[in-house]
UniProtKB/TrEMBL annotation:
Region Disordered, residue ranges: 23-44
Lineage of producing organism: Bacteria, Candidatus Woykeibacteriota
Species of provenance: Candidatus Woykebacteria bacterium GWA1_44_8
Protein name: Small ribosomal subunit protein uS4
Keyword Ribosomal protein part of the UniProt annotation: yes
Complex and partners: Part of the 30S ribosomal subunit. Contacts protein S5. The interaction surface between S4 and S5 is involved in control of translational fidelity.
Length: 208
């Protein structure tokens, strides 16, 4: 599957928010948004900053924020939306629940990796287990009650130990962790979800 391999800080600048795509470096005071403010990249960045967005433009930007934060390309993101639209209740919340319960995101949320891209790498390289079985599919959706852990050989990886130091205390309420074993206690509710973007505008974008 294709994925974005360009400069990640450029994505932060384009969306005007810190999407925490680079782990420790995203929390540094040297982050471009910390240094220069939310100025879009390129020689015409200041002009883009002054331009008033249309309703479609605002919807597009909110969609792009979420796509880029979770590292997902358009075709898969649209499939997630179609799946969420078939669920009962709020479609925007259902979409974010699907994204949050992806295995790579759960590994990141548990503090086993400093960023979602690093978590995806851990998963694809076979370092992650779900219910004590190796699972190397980043898009695998974990369920309530599932146990997510690292294989024994992976627990001392520098990437993991540094991540636990960086993110060890940032556990969301819908996950529990004991040592290097995490458990999904319940699906994230609306109040448990990070306010990356306005999910209602994403629903409006795909409902045009």
């Amino acid at each position: 599957m294709g994925r974005y391999t360009g400069p990640k800080f450029r994505l932060d600048r384009r969306e005007g928010v810190n999407l925490f795509l680079k782990g420790k470096r995203s929390s540094s005071p040297k982050h471009p948004i910390e240094k220069k403010g939310a100025v879009p990249p390129g020689q015409h960045g200041q002009r883009l900053l002054r331009r008033k967005l249309s309703d479609f433009g605002r919807q597009l930007r909110e969609k792009q924020k979420v796509k880029r934060a979770y590292g997902i390309l358009e075709r898969q993101f649209r499939r997630y939306f179609e799946k969420a639209s078939k669920e009962k209740g709020n479609t925007g919340v259902a979409l974010l629940q699907i994204l949050e319960t992806r295995l790579d995101n759960v590994v990141y949320r548990l503090g086993f990796a400093p960023s979602r891209s690093a978590a995806r790498q851990l998963v694809t390289h076979g370092h992650v287990q779900v219910n004590n079985k190796k699972t190397d599919i980043p898009s695998f959706n974990v369920k309530v009650g599932d146990l997510v852990s690292l294989s024994e050989r992976s627990q001392k990886l520098p990437l993991v130990t540094e991540a636990l130091e960086l993110r060890g205390d940032l556990l969301p309420s819908w996950l529990n962790r004991a040592g290097l074993v995490g458990r999904v206690s319940h699906l994230p509710a609306a109040e448990d979800l990070e306010a990356i973007a306005n999910e209602q505008l994403i629903v409006e974008y795909y409902s045009r």
